[in-house]
Design goal:
By secondary structure, this protein is of the alpha/beta class. It has 2 domains: 145 residues, no CATH class; 222 residues, no CATH class. β3 and β4 form a beta hairpin. The protein is globular, with a radius of gyration of 28 Å. It holds the Pfam family GmrSD_N. This is GmrSD restriction endonucleases N-terminal domain-containing protein. It comes from Coprinopsis marcescibilis. InterPro entries: GmrSD_N.
Length: 426
Amino acid sequence: MMIPQFPQYSQDCLLSDLEDGLYEEDDENDENDPNAFRIRDALPAPTHKNYTTQELHHMIHQGDIDLNPEYQRDVVWPESKQVNLVDSLWKNIHIPSIVFVVHKDEDGDEQRICVDGKQRLTSMQRFLDGQVPHKDTKKTWWFTIPVHSAGKANKFELPERAKAEFKAKVIQCVEYRNLEEGSEREIFRRVQLGMTLTTAEKWRAISSPWTSWINELQNKHIFVDGGLAENLKWTLSRGTDFQNVLNLVFLCEGYTVGERRIYSPAQIEKFLRREDNPDPEFKERIEEVLVDIWRLADDKKYHKCFASFNQLVAPVEFAFVGALLFSMQERSLSTKANAVHTLRFTIHSQFSGQVRNNNKVGNAAWSFINTLRRSPDATNLVVPDSGTPTSRNGKKRKSDDTDFDSDYRHPGRAAKKVAKSKSKAK
């Protein structure tokens, strides 16, 4: 069977044809024609570059490659998958290109933000650092063996010739320049469509003022030295760190307008995509809440409310502890500590092994908070009846307690409510 031959056109040839008018169209008419074909919001064309593993390894350790932008996933590949990646490089098996967005700092130095390929780069880097081996039949070979490595005598280090060969292996990279943050996050979102991302990882990739602020809160209160990442027993993998703070903010912001919000992925994503900036006074109060949580967890005088429990702090607990502290910010720290302990003890007693983000736990937690806000020393907290303040589909409903609302109101929303009531009066 003969294979058909097609004419070959170079890009220069096609551009020349366009300039000569072979594909001439009435551009002015197209601009006014809603049915005309056009590409909207196109990104600048990327460049394609090849880097050796040695070059990429050097750039990672020099800080010229950022593997951890706010929206990026944690390292989730198990060692077996990292070993397979190294094996693919050895055997010249194709691996997908790494995607970078290149920025210049104030000094004109370039930094590459890894939008796609963090797991691949981390696997390569860990191999070169002697943290994962290359497995060959019955032997495991290490690129380098640290002096104090356990079982060093039984490990095989690669010969220099093999090391040089691996350092010369080439990885294809795609580089974008002059992109705004929103476009950078959009690339991440699209290239991850084939990946299994957690809901939290998807939320973290959303570009909005609220996402940026929540990331700031993470860096300031969780991942700082001696921060909540170290002081609390909780899970922070796969974006749950971001989700924990987001849930807390979501509940507290609802509290300011008298809403008992319950965890709902659809409502939370809608909340996160808001284009308005967080209110400065609200931001200040959230900062105070996170500082209070840190003080309660860090100070031995008060940390019973966290340390006396064997269970990890569940995401729903962290959010409602924040809502409790938000509702009683004028109280003393010792009073807050007792209230937090009572809240956690009651939740775990009533929902043993079932402390999850759902309507049942959420409605009970709001009822407990309302009691503790009025009577911080209360100990007998009762699970409310099945009549819930939140509808079955997760939509927000106002609290039935007239005394539930805090004194603080989001100024923008309060103004809207006043205007709405006036229009009804007319």
